[in-house]
Amino acid sequence: MTVTETVAVETEAATAVETTAVWREVAAATGPADRAAAEDGVRLAYRLAGLSGPERIVWAGSPREGAALAARLKEEGSAGAGVRERVRTLPWAAARERVSERMGPAGWAAHWAVTGAPLWDGTVLLTERIRTGVVESAADLPGGEPAIRAALLDAVLGQHDAAWLAAFDGQEGTGDLAGLGAVARSAGWWWPYERVAVVAERPLQLHRDEAGRLDRGDGPALAFPDGFALHAWRGMPVPAAFLDGLSELTPRRIREEENAELRRVMLEYYGYDRYLEESGAQPVQRDTAGVLWRIELEGDEPLVMVEVVNSTPEPDGTHRTYWLRVPPRTRTAREGVAWTFGLEEADYVPERET
């Protein structure tokens, strides 16, 4: 490869990373939609698909309301046929074919690795959680679950199509996606039909942990303007009322919780070390790696923790204590610490304990 070619490749890679950062912000955007820009994007998407624009564009406060509106308009017969395939599926497939053909298999894989891939897991996780939440609330919506599930199949994901849009952004032969990109930058999910397009607002709040999972202990992790909300702790769906009680937890309340998954949430929120201390747990083994603790939980696997002390002092001279949850089969502190490194106890021989 010549110097010029090398520079070109490096420049393209840097541009791809910058583009992905922009689409990451789009995927996580909260606050009111730019309705004018979104509606212009909808009409452009129709034109690029060879369709006349929708006669009207209807706004919804969330994907839940959007699916309900779409279902009702379809039932009434005022929406016309769905045009998602022409507006999104076909131009999407054509763009991918052109880009992957131009880049070749290896080039496309490398391009996807720095554009779509970093956004994929997080957006898929979020969209599936939203779908589930919409379906779970379908009993209260017109048409019930069958109608809502059918309407969800018509949805274009707007900002949550960010992974694919990041991969296509700026690439030759992807101009037919300009309308889809404009809507994604301005609004949430939307439903394209012959005579009507339904467009949903973006969320007002989005709280996620470092792994990209919905996560909040003092309110909804995802909330939309119309009141549709999802509550979760480190990715696990929880009832809103459950979160309200976390601030008043006691070891007894944790022990009495019959749902094992909710009990684990309680333990994480309360703190394993605090729970062990206040439950009167006793250490079962000590060695140079730390202290092994174990307490039985009714209807669940035992809580087994290793207490380790960081040998590197803090700026004030103190030594921080850490608690590591390890498998119930763990019999020694050293075995537990080794497990956290993916090692067997015999293979764990650190030069210095930290």
List the helices and strands and how they pair.
Layout: H1 3-27, H2 35-48, E1 56-60, H3 63-76, H4 84-114, H5 117-136, H6 144-152, H7 162-168, H8 178-186, E2 190-192, E3 196-200, E4 205-206, E5 222-223, E6 229-230, E7 232-233, E8 236-237, H9 240-244, H10 251-256, H11 260-270, H12 272-278, E9 283-287, E10 290-295, E11 303-309, E12 321-325, H13 333-340
Helix pairs in contact: 1-7, 2-8, 3-6, 5-6
Number of domains: 2
Number of helices: 13
What gross morphology would you assign?
Answer: globular
Structural class per helix/strand content?
alpha+beta
Q: Can you summarize the main beta sheet?
A: 4 strands, antiparallel
Mean pLDDT: 89
Cα-to-Cα separation, first versus last residue: 46 Å
Biggest sheet, spatial arrangement of strands: 9-10-11-12
**How many extended strands?**
12
Short description:
The protein is 47% helix and 13% strand. By secondary structure, it is an alpha+beta fold. Helix 3 (63-76) crosses helix 6.
Description:
The chain is 47% helix and 13% strand. The longest helix has 31 residues. The N terminus is likely disordered. A hairpin with a 7-residue loop joins strand 10 and strand 11. It has 13 helices and 12 strands. Helix 1 packs antiparallel against helix 7, helix 2 runs antiparallel to helix 8 and helix 5 packs antiparallel against helix 6. With 354 residues, the chain is α+β, with helices and mostly antiparallel strands.
Key phrases:
alpha+beta, 2 domains
